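User: My instructor asked us to take a sequence, write out its structure as tokens, and then describe one feature of it. I'm not sure where to start. Here is the sequence I was given:
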Amino acid sequence: MEKKLTTRKEYDEVKTRVETLIAEATEKGLLEPDMDNDYTRKIAELSNQMAQYEDDYMDIMPLREKTPLIKLIEDYFYARNMKQKEGAQFLGINESVFSQILSGKRRITMPLAKRLRTKLGIDAETILEYA
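Assistant: Let's start with the prediction itself. The structure tokens for your sequence are:
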């Protein structure tokens, strides 16, 4: 049974221990993908304790996952080697607004949804579901 962290001091001590273990394992070449050893198991155990403490006591916003619509928009411009600024210009919107849309901080407006359909060829069903 994993120990439950209940104080910030315990959390900070475990965090320091995880950082030390990661450094040691990396130096020894024992922290590669799909490796199973004492280091990876201990790091996973301590990380789980930290995550539980964060859920219980810290007000940390979860990472935002990109929607399929945002991925399609990014893929369109990536395939054409266009930077975010160029993508914003192509869609006729402000670069900072476009950045906020891509990061999930701003919703897609109806006029932009129409441009995504006509200029990028994204199907209306995807736009309706994820905008």
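For the description part of your assignment, you could build on this observation: The longest helix spans residues 8-27. Try explaining in your own words what that tells you about the chain.
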